[in-house]
Each structure stands twice: as structure tokens, then as C-alpha cells.
Amino acid sequence: MTVVVLTGGVGGAKLVLGLANVMPPEEIVAIVNTGDDFEHLGLSISPDIDTLLYTLSGKANTVQGWGRAGESWGFMAALRELGGEDWFQLGDGDLALHVLRSMRLRAGDSLSVVTRAFAQAWSIGVTVLPMSDDPVRTRLDTAIGPLDFQQYFVRERCVPAVNAIRFDGADGASPAPGVIEAIAGADAILIAPSNPFLSIDPILAVPAIRAALLRASGPVVAVSPIVGGAAVKGPTAKLMTELGLAIDNHAIARHYRAVIDGLVVHAGDPAPADGLLILETDTMMTTLEDRIRVARATLALAESAGRRRSAV
Amino acid sequence: MTVVVLTGGVGGAKLVLGLANVMPPEEIVAIVNTGDDFEHLGLSISPDIDTLLYTLSGKANTVQGWGRAGESWGFMAALRELGGEDWFQLGDGDLALHVLRSMRLRAGDSLSVVTRAFAQAWSIGVTVLPMSDDPVRTRLDTAIGPLDFQQYFVRERCVPAVNAIRFDGADGASPAPGVIEAIAGADAILIAPSNPFLSIDPILAVPAIRAALLRASGPVVAVSPIVGGAAVKGPTAKLMTELGLAIDNHAIARHYRAVIDGLVVHAGDPAPADGLLILETDTMMTTLEDRIRVARATLALAESAGRRRSAV
Asked: If we measure between CA atoms, which residue out of A305, A281, A79 comes closest to residue A190?
């Protein structure tokens, strides 16, 4: 059995961790958003890949919601002394990942080769694939002008209203090695409860990935990021309002309609009634047990969706 | 009054600090060896410049003899976990210097511009000039084959016997902006008690710097690194033996003979008697008072040498 997960940051990493606790990690392929990647202080930073690597290796700072547990901050303190740009926090241990990745990318290694090396060093069983080895950069047209993703997300703390979101480079980007094969061979394809517009859309914006999803034989199911009429965290709800969408599962379902067979929604939240398979569960993932529950529910919905595909 | 100091690592930084305590720092120009510079993990590292910046800003770890005081090591621990090369110790605070320098060099800034920015950020009054903005790399032919300087000095701990020392790039290197002007306008030019073969020779190997020293109007005096028939620290004594030299002030005097007017030697050590001006003092620089004493002695010898030049 192979399960593919399209995933972005923290919420997606939680689902992948849950999956890795209910099935052999070796049978899971995570296809990770790289639209948030950026160059900062001359370093190549891949926030979503790193969040997943930290989460799966038990190194994530789960209280803070980003970075490594037990991190020290000597670099940032010295950087500030020297007048360096300090709006993006780089922990001392975290830096090792960025310095090594930057060195290897400059030497000609691809992002997927570097990512695999990190996963192996930390004995991560899940296959972690960047969506593409080509640079794709999420950019937002906002009330204060165009912003790179990290400028919007970290430096401006998602305050500026967003008019439009672009994924520069996506049109010409090739899927990373293994991405298309994993989708084509998957028994189930899951879309994590990451931000649909900022974390999942960049993946869907790579033409060959979208095409592979549309012709995949395995069922595709998403976990809605909406809980109780709001988003669990991050700018999802604010962004949906700015994009003229209602903050509900109908909007999520419409957004993913072309690619999904089913949607996991938070118990009690209104569910769309347009032919999508729906499974209700508590989708809040606070504890490991929560993550396992959501993983099981998502796999169960995928199984139903698979049966329905076979029956058609 | 302007005093120029040719300097390498720790010993040289001590003399410059002593000088900065007995005269206005703004009247001191340090011309620093860059033969030890290297690229490591994709970062541009300038050990001798950094040692001087740390020393003059009060940030140096004087117990350890290199790096910053109060340093943390989260980066190295994480680097090791990832299988990165860990023979060169990079403290978390130290990294800020290397990351910013690497970024700015890649963006096209020169090493001297970057060095000046760091010195300004830390309110260092002494003018700190790299000997050259062009790469000069000290390489050693050793019993185990050719080695880059840091491979020899740090990774191999100076164990392999040295047959020859080369300064790749020196022939074609231009002095950094300000170097020639400082030498030409100096009231005194001091050669710090740094390793003559590894720290000072790379500076003298830049043809225009050597020529400027030979035609300088100000007197040139060196501080001998020999104390009690041995070198204070580092590989100087071992290296002199391997190069077939006696470990004494005669050998030092012969080595510098073409460029110096005088030599400061450690009190009690045999002094060369070949017409060089000699001043004896305790040249061990353990405390700040020691550094001030050696700085005063060196300035005094330079003054004598200047008077002799005028009398000729």
C-alpha cells in the first residue's frame, strides 16, 4: 500500500505524523509545498520541508509551532549586533540545515537529493519529496504592494489584505523525481489540512502534478482546514474573506472539487452536499492521539472513495 | 601620527590591542593576513580578520585563544547530526559574521568593504584592512601531501612535517584599498609577533606590499615571536625546525632582514648582532599590561629606528 500526502506546514506535518503512527512510514510519500522557499542572508530556506523533517524526527518545537525544540539563539543575537536583517528567526540548530542545503544546492545537488540526505541522516521512514526541484515562489499582491511569501507571512504577520496570489515559476516547473510515479501508483492520495490557497495550491499549480492527480487511479481525499467556522491557525480564514469566500466547508469543497473524491470535515460543521463523500470527525490535532484519529479517518474516507471509484 | 601593523592571528591581535591602549585607535592601521581565509560549508571565513575584530571589540575568548567569549554550539551539534564536516569549530555567534560576509561577498562587495562594516558595527576605532581583496591562499607541501592552511592548522593540528609553503594567488594580488597609502604615510610600521612563515609572509608575498615596505619613509620594526628559545604558541618552532632553521632571533632577523630596521626580542634571549636595532623587553603578552608594555617598547624601538633613518 502506498499513501501520498500533499502537504504544507505545521497542520500537514501533524497529519503525516499521524499516518506514520498507523501504517508503515515506508509506505507514505509526502509531497511538500516549496512555494514558501526563499533565499535569506544568502541561505536557501525550505520552511515546509523542514517543518516536516523536524516533526517526523521528533525535533519540532510543538509549543512554538515552528523550528526545533531546545533551540538556542546565539546566531540571531550576533546577527542583530552586526545590523543584519532579523525579521526571520533562524535558530542555531536550524541553521545547520540551511547552511548544508545552501552548500549542496550551490554545488549542483537538487533539492530532492538534499532533502533525502537529511531524512536519511535522521532515520525518517516517510519519503519526503519537494513538489519540484525547480524554484516556485509564492507571491502575494497585497494592499501594501507585492510581497514574497515570507515577507507577507513572517515580516508583515499576514496583516496586509491580499488581492491575488501567484506561484511564480509553477507553469514551467517539473515535478521532482518520484512525484508523478508516487501519485500514479498510490492507493490513496490525501490533501492535508494545510492552507489550500498558500500551501496546497502551489503544488496543484505545477501542471504535471495537477494532471497526474486528475488521472490518478487512487482516490483523492482532503481534510478541511475549517473547524467551527474558522481556520485552526494561520491566515486561512482572513485570506478566504479577502478573496471573497465564505469560511466554510462549501468553499473548501468548491476549491478542491476538480481533484477530490471526498472531504473530511470537523464534526458538527456544515458539510457540502454536492456528491462529495464526507466523513465527520474531530479534526483538531492537539495530541498525538488526535493526529492518529484524523489519519485513520482520512484513510477510511479514502477507502470508501476507492470503493465508490471501483463501483462506477 | 599613523602606525601600521602587519598582523596575523592571536599574537598580532594582542599587540594591536596594546597599541590601541597607548595611542588613539584612529591612528592605527592593521593590515591583516588573509592567507588563512577559506571556504567551508559554503561560507567565507577570514580567521585572522575575525580574531582581530573580536579582540578589539572585547568579544574574543581569551581563554580558548580563538572565537568569541560566551559562545554557544547549537549549530555544530546539529551539523554533526546531519553528517556535516565538523573538524572546524563554528560557534553560533561566530556564524553571523561568516553568513553576512558570505552573503555580501557573493553580492559583489569586497572583503575590505565588508570588514569595515563589521568594524563600524562594533565601534572599532582601529582601521582593519585585509592585505588584499583578491584571494590569496596559503598552501603547505607536507609529509602527507599538499594541504590548505586550515586543513594543516586545524584538521591535522600541525602534525605533518612541512617541506614548503606557498601563497597561491599572491603574485597577482593587489593590495586592498588603503594598504599602500597607509604604509607610505606611516610614521612607523610594526610587524607583530605572529608566525613569520604563515602569518606575515603571505602579506610580504603581495608584490606591491613588499615594494611599499622597501620604499617606506617610516621605520619598520618587528617583534620576534621567539621567547626563551621557543615560540609562544602555535607551530612556529616546529615549522622552523622543519624548514632547517634554528629557533632563535638570528633566524627571525635573517628572515625579515630586507624589510626591517629593528627587532624587539624577549629579554634574556640571544639577540642578533648584525646592525639591526635591538630592544629587549618581556614579550610574553598574558595580561593587558603585558600588551601595553610590548606596544610601548615596539613604538620606542620604531622611534629610535626613525631617528637613525633621519641621521643617515
From this structure: A305
Q: Per the structure, how many domains does chain B have?
A: 1
pLDDT in tens, B86-106: 999 999 999 999 999 999 999
Contact A96 B102 (CB under 8 A): no
Residue B157 counted as domain residue: no
Task: Note the residue count of chain A.
Answer: 312
Element holding B202 (H helix, E strand): helix B201-204
CA–CA gap between residue B171 and residue A22 (Å, rounded) = 65
pLDDT in tens, chain A (312 residues): 999 999 998 999 999 999 999 999 999 999 999 999 999 999 999 999 999 999 999 999 888 888 899 999 999 999 999 999 999 999 999 999 999 999 999 999 999 999 999 999 999 999 999 999 999 999 999 999 999 999 999 899 999 999 999 999 999 999 999 999 999 999 999 999 999 999 999 999 999 999 999 999 999 999 999 998 887 777 888 999 999 999 999 999 999 999 999 999 999 999 987 789 999 999 999 999 999 999 999 999 999 999 998 887
Closest alpha carbon to A272 in A258, A251, A256, A255? A251
Single-letter residue type at B72: S
- In three-state secondary structure terms, A137 is strand
| Amino acid of residue B119 | A
Cell numbers for A223, please give them: 481534510
Q: What is the ipTM of this complex?
A: 0.90
Query: Which whole-number Å values give the CA distances from B260 to B72, B146, B221, B222, in the listed order?
Result: 42, 31, 5, 7
Residue A189 resides in a domain: yes
Instruction: Report yes or no: B196 and B279 within 8 Å, Cβ to Cβ.
Output: no
* In a domain? residue B149: no
Alpha helices, H only, chain A: 10-20, 47-56, 74-81, 92-106, 111-121, 149-150, 179-185, 201-204, 207-214, 236-242, 249-256, 288-311
Domain that includes residue A240, residue range: 3-49+131-141+168-311
Residue A151 near residue A228, CB atoms below 8 Å? no
Between CA A221 and CA A180 the distance in angstroms is 17
- Residue B7 half-sphere exposure, CB side, CA atoms within 13 Å? 33
Task: Give the closest of B75, B83, B91 to A93, CB-based.
Answer: B75
Residue with cell 509549543: A63
On chain A, the residues whose CB falls within 8 A of the CB of B102 are 42
Nearest to B74 among A92, A102, A122 (CB): A92
Asked whether A141 and A163 are in contact (CB, 8 A), the reply is yes
Burial of B225 from C-beta contacts in 10 A (0-12 / 13-18 / 19+): buried
HSE toward the beta carbon, residue A115, CA cutoff 13 A: 31
CB contact under 8 A, A100 and B118: no
CATH number at residue A214: 3.40.50.10680
List of chain A residues whose C-beta atoms are within 8 Å of the C-beta of residue B94: 78
Measured between beta carbons, the chain B residues lying within 8 angstroms of A122 are 81-82
In a domain, A196, yes or no: yes
